[in-house]
Specification:
By secondary structure, this protein is an alpha+beta fold. The protein is built from 19 helices and 23 strands.
């Protein structure tokens, strides 16, 4: 491990005093980070053997190479590391580096290019897009684990069959079950229904037509209807990464704690919501840096020239702290405790990157800025089963549209997000198929007068004279907004209250930690919740699933169910990309604007900062994989 001390004058005096004062207030976090550092240092020291007794004093053993460790922080706590049980971004960043999918996104290609990973080649696809046949690379092995009883365990086609079946097992409670169900994989839904009806364990041993191992290394999928973009489902190791049945059964009930995959990293130590340490998988096969940046991509071409042919991964370990507050993450990076500031806190955007350029003082230190318009959208959803804001009658639709029109996105972007976002007009995110930067809808409007007129027209007026609007039947109108008890959420809560005060609507903020809110959301217990959704494929269909009726309780947290929308969604699934599918997408966007089950707020401009010794970083658009492609330039590390 490398020991670091801050460079002289790395932190201005006033900021340093603020950091010390803040550290005293954040004693638990500070002590936790110190304990983690001491534990790693002790481990590294124990690994270095002293010179043998009696050896010549003039001959010294060569100095051990310092461990190359990528250190950074998540701003939200993880939930665990079982791919079939996850939907949150930060857990999936970890699982993407432990488990492997059949295909991956090229690290340097923009906006995207898919290439084989554990597959030996691109799939063989029938003309009707219903049969997909894939050959695996032989000689890929899972990381060693006691579940394998001392034998080396090779990855086979059966592992992908088993891994997919887990999403259909009711006992798994997979959040992404609906995502796979809609693909129409023959036989799997029937297997699930039988387990539910019989109340017996899911039968993993029963063959199904839709996913089969034709031989040890050949996998075949058969679908009920055409699925031209089925390949995207096969390119996400964070969710559909191969797991071994022996491991799942050996750690039954504790699979979130025992991830064992074939990927470049393996879990070494985990203190829940505090520290995640992963180390290089010593059994990882020979994979070398190779990519295909666009011809005009100077940065990508430079990275390829520098790293092409290097064995991956290039670092030895990754240590992730969980720091929800922006100030300690920012100060820890300035103090060189972290190599990467993954997602610069918005409150420091104008300090670190005024006008979108790296600040001169940071540039002098060699700090690098990476800025992209993310393929995401932030939104708040309405629980369509809630008696206050849910429903499809004109008065309920008017209430949701009025709340949307009263949401001041321009102020959110300038004041709260420090200009690090653009307004969202619909669910379709940048870089995904169907996104049009010139598309305009009411979703992007701020019109307080129209919002008030809508509420007046449908009877949401102050009936008891207390200054607040009531429901048409005279009951108080109170919106309950789910949020989190951290400084990052507070400005948004204050903006919510300011906007709704102007509309004459009372709100109540309900706070809980993010994982707890997610659990409540899946159970349909939240009225309104603001969150973000990152695209993990380059297709708009993934975002549309957030409102697809059969996905209710899964990706469809708001439980929106509209027959016309669901019909459009299903038709889009079977069509190849083209004018007919694009017309359906526009119809879906119009329906969502009209019924307003979600208010889409912004697409974020994401800024990352890297220390001068971290090289090779590039934020991926559609998957979470970047650890294997970065390196630590030990010559640029601060003095020991």
């Amino acid at each position: 491990m490398r020991a670091r001390r801050p460079a002289p004058n790395a932190v201005p005096h006033g900021v340093f005093l603020d950091r010390i004062t803040g550290a005293m207030r954040r004693g638990a976090w500070t002590l936790g980070l110190m304990a983690a550092s001491l534990a790693v240092a002790t481990s590294a020291g124990a690994a270095a053997s002293p010179p043998p007794a009696g050896g010549s004093p003039s001959v010294q053993a060569p100095a051990a190479q310092p461990e190359k460790v990528l250190r950074y922080a998540f701003l939200v706590a993880e939930t665990g590391f079982d791919p079939a049980q996850l939907s949150d971004l930060y857990s999936r960043i970890v699982t993407a580096h432990i488990f492997e999918s059949l295909y991956n996104y090229d690290y340097l290609a923009r906006p995207f290019k898919l290439k084989p990973n554990t597959a030996a080649a691109m799939p063989e696809v029938s003309d009707d897009f219903r049969t997909w046949t894939i050959r695996l690379r032989p000689g890929i092995y899972f990381a060693d684990d006691p579940a394998f009883k001392g034998r080396r365990r090779e990855l086979t086609a059966e592992d992908y069959v088993y891994s997919l079946k887990r999403f259909y097992d009711p006992a798994t409670k997979a959040p992404l079950y609906s995502t796979f169900k809609q693909e129409g994989i023959l036989g799997l839904e029937e297997l699930r229904v039988e387990a539910l009806k019989s109340k017996r364990p899911f039968d993993y041993d029963r063959p199904v037509e839709g996913v089969r191992a034709l031989d040890r290394y050949t996998l075949q999928f058969r679908l009920a209807e055409p699925r031209p973009r089925f390949l995207y489902n096969l390119a996400g190791g964070d969710t559909y990464g191969a797991v071994a049945r022996e491991v799942i059964e050996a750690y039954a009930g504790k699979t979130m704690e025992h991830p064992v995959g074939t990927g470049p990293f393996m879990l070494d130590r985990w203190r829940r919501s505090s520290l995640i340490r992963l180390v290089r998988n010593p059994g990882y096969r020979d994979v070398f840096y190779d990519a295909q940046p666009n011809p005009g991509d100077a940065e990508g071409q430079a990275l390829l020239a520098r790293f092409k042919g290097r064995k991956l991964p290039m670092i030895d370990a990754v240590e992730i702290s969980i720091i929800e507050e922006g100030q300690p993450r920012w100060l820890s990076f300035l103090n060189r405790e972290f190599d990467l500031l993954y997602l610069l806190p918005e409150e420091y955007a104008e300090v670190a990157a005024p006008h979108g350029r790296i600040a001169p003082n940071l540039q002098k230190q060699g700090i690098q800025l990476y800025s992209v318009l993310a393929s995401d959208r932030t939104m708040y959803y309405f629980n369509m089963e809630d008696p206050t804001v849910g429903g499809y009658t004109p008065d309920k639709v008017a209430l949701r549209r009025a709340i949307g029109l009263a949401t001041d996105i321009a102020t959110e972007i300038t004041r709260t997000r420090r200009h690090q976002a653009v307004p969202a007009q619909s669910v379709v995110a940048p870089m995904t198929w169907g996104y049009d930067p010139d598309y305009k809808s009411e979703n992007g409007d701020f019109d307080l007068a129209r919002a008030k007129a809508l509420l007046d027209t449908y009877g949401y007026v102050d009936k008891d004279g207390d200054g607040w609007r009531d429901q048409p039947d005279g009951r108080p109108l109170v919106l309950e907004i789910a949020s989190s008890p951290d400084s990052r959420s507070k400005p948004y809560d204050e903006l919510w209250k300011r906007d709704m005060d102007k509309l004459g609507v009372q709100i109540r903020i309900r706070t809980a930690q993010w994982p707890e809110n997610l659990k409540s959301a899946r159970a349909g217990q939240l009225m309104i919740w603001q969150l973000g959704f990152n695209s993990s494929t380059p297709d708009a269909q993934l975002g549309l699933e957030l409102m697809y009726g059969p996905a209710s309780g899964g990706q469809n947290l708001g439980r929106f169910k509209l027959a016309r929308y669901d019909e459009i969604y299903r038709r889009m699934m079977v069509l190849p990309d083209g004018p007919e599918r694009a017309a359906l997408l526009r119809d879906a966007q119009k329906l969502l604007t009209a019924y307003m089950p979600q208010k889409f707020r912004v697409h974020r401009i994401v800024n990352d900062l890297a220390q001068p010794w971290l090289i090779g970083f590039r934020r991926p658009y559609f998957n979470q994989i970047f650890w294997p492609y970065v390196d630590i330039d030990t010559a640029k590390l601060p003095p020991r």
